[in-house]
Amino acid sequence: MVIIIHRSLLTMKTTPKKPKNPLFNYLDILITLGKMGGGRRLVTCTTSELGNSIGISQQSTSRKLVEMENMNLIVRNYSQRGNSIKITPEGIANLEQIFTDLWMILTTSGRVISEKIILRGKVITGMAEGAYYMGQKAYQNQFSMVLDFTPFPGTLNLQILDEVTIRNFERLLRLPAKFISGFKDGDRVFGKVFIWPTFILLNDEKIPAAIVRPERTHHSNQIELISPMSIKKKYGA
Fold first, then answer.
1. Is 15:21 a contact under the CB 8 Å cutoff?
2. Looking at the domain assignment, is residue 4 inside a domain?
3. Which residue segment(s) compose the domain that 108 sits in?
4. pTM
5. 97 phi and psi, to 5 degrees?
6. What percentage of the chain exceeds 90 in pLDDT?
7. Are residues 97 and 138 in the same domain?
8. Helical spans, DSSP H, in the chain
9. What is the pLDDT of residues 116-148, one digit of tens each?
10. What own/partner pairs with CB < 8 Å and gap ≥ 24 does 188-196 have?
11. CB 82 within 8 A of CB 48
């Protein structure tokens, strides 16, 4: 099992998405519930306690909770102890979108954001296309300029096996990326390649690497990696 941890230190000049989510009216409650563990399980509290923690009245808290239920952002059970509340998958998905919007806004303002996204996958045999494309001089020169290493002329291919990694990979693809410009060699056109700096954690050793994603790709459940060495040859991965 290979584990990749993405460490993003990007300050790309991309245009942030405009927040278009009504969730901002309920963000204070969602964040408070999330801190209590409400993204994973039911958490119990009274509307007064919840209101006090975010600085609004009990009546306003009750009204917001009803609206959030109607929007399928939370589920609620009632008991003598108070409300048992959990954030729904739809609520989590909306929070992820807001996180992405804020990440892009802060990044494009010149701030550096450091984040970790863990991906897991099984090493598979590719079609040898990676070696062909990585062997192109125009690509090699750009990779060496963009990354802190000169990549081995080949890719390590991973098959995504679990739902958590699928969601994490989709989330990573929404983040700003560095890129390698495409070029033309005779009649052959080589497209743009997006890059996310990363490292591979293998046998307690951190190996510098990068996730690469061609602009035109047909593999939604595969991860392609480049590194300074052949991981397969060195570790028998």
1. no
2. no
3. 13-113
4. 0.52
5. -65, -40
6. 25
7. no
8. 27-35, 47-54, 58-70, 89-108, 129-134, 137-146, 163-174, 231-235
9. 788 888 888 866 677 778 888 888 888 888 887
10. 190/133, 190/136, 190/138, 190/139, 191/215, 191/216, 193/139, 195/143, 195/146, 195/147, 196/6, 196/8, 196/172
11. no
Q: Are residues 157 and 91 in the same domain?
A: no
Amino acid at 109: S
| Site of tokens 């958590």 | 164
Q: Are 104 and 160 contained in the same domain?
A: no
Nearby residues of 214 by Cβ (< 8 Å), 6 or more positions away: 133, 191, 192, 193, 194
**Which two tokens mark 231?**
């991981």
Question: Could you tell me which residues come within 8 angstroms of residue 98 by beta carbon, excluding any fewer than 6 positions away?
Answer: 19, 21, 23, 24, 27
Do 70 and 85 lie in a common domain?
Answer: yes
